[in-house]
Amino acid sequence: MKKIIVYILPLVLLLHVSKAQTPRPADPQTEPIALLHATAHIGNGQVIANSYILFEKGKIVGIGDATNSRPDLTGYRLIDAAGKHVYPGLIMPSSRLGLEDISAVRPTVDFNEVGEITPHVRSQIAFNTDSDLLPTFRFNGILLAQVAPQGGLVTGTSSVMMLDGWNWEDATYVQDDAIHVSWPSRTISPRWWMGETERKENPTYQKQCDAIGQLFIDAAAYHAGTSKVDINLVLEAVAGVLDGTQKVFVEVNNAREIMDAINRFKSVGVTNLVIVGGSDAYYVKDLLRQNNIPVILDNLHRLPSREDEAVDEPFRLPYLLTKEGILVGLRHEGMLARGRNLPFYAGTAAAYGLEKEEALKLITSNTAKILGIDRVTGTLETGKDANLLLTEGDLLDMKESIIISAFIQGREVIIEGKQQILYERFKDKYSE
Questions:
Q1: pTM score, two decimals?
Q2: What CATH fold (topology level) applies to the domain 23-88+378-416?
Q3: How far apart are CA 247 and CA 238, in angstroms?
Q4: CB burial of residue 250 (10 Å; 0-12, 13-18, 19+)
Q5: What is the pLDDT at residue 426?
Q6: Whether residue 36 has pLDDT greater than 80
Q7: What angle do CA 387, 391, 395 make, to 5 degrees?
Q8: Which of 300, 291, 253 is nearest to 273 (CA)?
Q9: What b/e readout covers 402-420, taking b as 16+ CB neighbours within 10 angstroms?
């Protein structure tokens, strides 16, 4: 009987997944839209208290102070946003969003490929636009995500995806933007089942580091060749790193390992790096600044990484690094669903040192710069994509943030997900 239960439970979960309904993707923008009289948070530190924002065919075509000027609004759909706020759409970097739905159900998990060195694994084609998690992220203002594989040492190639679309082709914002590396640890955890209590040295650490470095050495030799008899997909995938069109995102936290990673990559001619995680980044701030390496901090709502650190050290880390001239972005991995709280992590950074508009940059313009998409998004500026949010209250304050509308390339997307639909369904029944 127990075996039958074990077999049936995954089937029940799969049936639940197959019946899940996600909101219909938005249609392309068909009429010009004008948002009037909102407080506009541009994303670069600037605020316009009484703004107008005009967008047409997916692009912002005008923005300014409505107190001093009044553009011609003939033919525009007018939205009176007095008393409300407008923000750039938020960006989640280095995430497995869209590659995982239910972590306990293997068929819904597709972020980890077999092998240790797999730069040719592409997240773009595995992105699931029907994921139940996407509406929950949109509901909190996250409109774009850099979707990255995980597992192994060189985990694969990411793409920046829109959190709205019929399929992965529709949802692609930037294809194959970066290679992702999971740097090995110098130490390994104690085996508690064998009575061990202390971490010990990783005997394969140098071998793993050498394997990562050798990939880029081999790729340089491969692409320098005048003729290629056999196509090597692994080495072909690294071409963008060698010609400077792709960055390398290195998942690493420990200070010594950050130094090892930077020095190893420099030794093989790779300097276009981004540190992801970076809990010890402040201890190597000079090295990061000297090499112009940005940091994407992971999960501010955590305990300090060291026993002698102040309990609020993770909360203050964005401020400390920003003060040192280091470009900082935010993300949240671990339990994937908690990543939807990205704006509130930026709110925590604002409460612990950063000015509020500087904290907003952590999840808008800074992240856009790190991902190399700041020419088209990340701020509310003429010529950029109309990726924006209309809210009641402060977007970074979980007590008052209510997103009214969201637009991706001018398309007004449905922000309500399953939770909101169920709330509307049952609230009348239980309020009687």
A1: 0.90
A2: Urease, subunit C; domain 1 (2.30.40)
A3: 10
A4: buried
A5: 83
A6: yes
A7: 90
A8: 291
A9: ebebbbbbbbebbbebeee
Decide: helix, strand or coil at residue 332: coil
Give the separation between CA 284 and CA 260, rounded to whole angstroms: 11
- Report the CATH number of the 89-377 domain: 3.20.20.140
Give dist(CA 261, CA 180) in Å, integer.
13
State both tokens at 140. Answer: 């909190």
- Length, in residues, of the chain: 432
Angle, helices 313-323 vs 342-351, to 10°: value is 80
Residue 2 pLDDT greater than 70, yes or no: no
In sequence order, the 6+-apart residues with CB closer than 8 A to the CB of 158 are: 94, 123, 146, 147, 148, 149, 176, 177, 178, 179, 180, 249
- Report the pLDDT value the prediction gives residue 406, as an integer from 0 to 100: 96
Please return the burial class of 73, using the count of CB atoms within 10 Å of its CB with bins 0-12, 13-18 and 19+. middle
pLDDT of the residue at 429: 76
Report, in angstroms and rounded to the nearest whole number, the Rg of the chain calculated over CA atoms.
23
Residues 112-168 have pLDDT tens digits of 788 899 999 999 999 999 998 999 999 999 999 999 999 899 999 999 999 999 999
Tens digits of per-residue pLDDT, 233-255? Answer: 999 999 999 999 999 999 999 99
Every domain of the chain and the residues it spans: 23-88+378-416, 89-377
Counting Cα atoms < 13 Å in the Cβ hemisphere of 258 gives 24
Residue 390's Cβ-side half-sphere holds a number of Cα atoms within 13 Å equal to 25
Both tokens assigned to 158: 């990411």
Instruction: Return d(Cα 6, Cα 75) in angstroms, integer.
Output: 61
Cα 86 from Cα 79, distance rounded (Å): 12
Mean pLDDT for the stretch of residues 259-264: 97
The 3-state DSSP class for residue 68 equals: coil
- Average pLDDT of every residue of the chain: 90
Using CB atoms within 10 A of its CB, is residue 216 exposed (0-12), middle (13-18) or buried (19+)? buried
